[in-house]
TrEMBL record:
It comes from Streptomyces nymphaeiformis. Belongs to the SIMIBI class G3E GTPase family. ZNG1 subfamily. Transmembrane segments: none annotated. This is G3E family GTPase. Residues 229-320 form the CobW C-terminal domain. One of its GO terms (cellular component) is cytoplasm. It catalyses: GTP + H2O = GDP + phosphate + H(+). SUPFAM superfamilies: Hypothetical protein YjiA, C-terminal domain, P-loop containing nucleoside triphosphate hydrolases.
Amino acid sequence: MTTQQIPVVVLAGFLGAGKTTLLNHLLRSARGTRIGVMVNDFGDIGIDAMTVAGQVGSTVSLGNGCLCCAVDAGELDEYLEVLTRPESRLDVIVIEASGLAEPEELVRMVLASENERVVYGGLVQVVDAAEFEATWQRHPGTDRHLALADLVVVNKADRVAEDELRSVRKTVAALAGRAAVVEASHGRVDPELLFDRVAPEGEIEGQMSIEDILYGSEDDDHAHPHAAYESLSVTSSTPLHPRRLMAFLDSRPEGLYRIKGFVDLGPADPANRYAVHAVGRFLRFYPEPWPAGEERLTQLVLIGSGTDASALRKELAACELNGPQDTPDEHSMWGVLRYVQRTEEEPDES
Ligand SMILES: Nc1nc2c(ncn2[C@@H]2O[C@H](COP(=O)(O)OP(=O)(O)OP(=O)(O)O)[C@@H](O)[C@H]2O)c(=O)[nH]1
């Protein structure tokens, strides 16, 4: 039964920590290793599934909501069944959890899987070095998540000063116990760190027993972090005015922690769509040519707490172009271009 078991690695981390970026790095540097991917998005639109580079064929999107709530173990097994068919010839499966999912639940589901072709391959927890302190204060569950991890990636090392990075790393290492802690920028970790971490059969390397994982502990508070977060998905076929979009983004409320998706800026740049990522006060646009034959849509997921969904929806609707008389002027893209990263190696800090 142990022959050719495929490790299933759970990739978790708070909203915007860099899970998709790390996953894309793994896919790009896989060098012959065949990676199956399951992506779970919080929000109606599967933005993460769309942004996992060139892997659409082997991606199974788990649909709306937090995996631990939306998908029971039976459903997870259905997806695993698809990915473990012999014709897939996969070497490893990575489940990218929604930034609001409980990794513990996911790990439990993988361990409870009835699929004999899979084996739990460990929990990788991605941490945003720049946002760690704030996230840790807001979410006491962070301690538990890190304690469960087999590997912690302190990502966005490029966004913090050396001493801050050292201090985050120290805190994380203390919370993560025996887990390996590595620093990374843009999720660039050695893929072997993940793929070789298959736990011995029937045992998880880490601090919790199988029973703890499978059945939970008595005092387990199951207050999922997403209980306090709302997500709003917006899809529009009317292009947005770059200036009004920037005014909206510049004045986004504190509670609006995460924005991701794509925007259509219409005549201001007919060739490209703009992937947008906001995490806290961090904002980036990534222009990319419109995929041939794809309908030109703005698709955004906004995640926050204490935000007014209908007001946000109205504000975004006000960014839409109002017919030919509302054509953006030639300088209208300047605001957007300030937040375009020049190269991946040389991020333009906001
Ligand atoms: N400067 C910098 N930016 C990064 C790094 N890693 C990721 N980012 C940026 O951070 C933003 C969020 O990254 P994602 O990979 O989408 O984060 P995520 O954890 O998948 O986000 P959710 O799906 O919302 O939970 C994007 O704009 C990334 O380009 C990094 O190491 N340094």
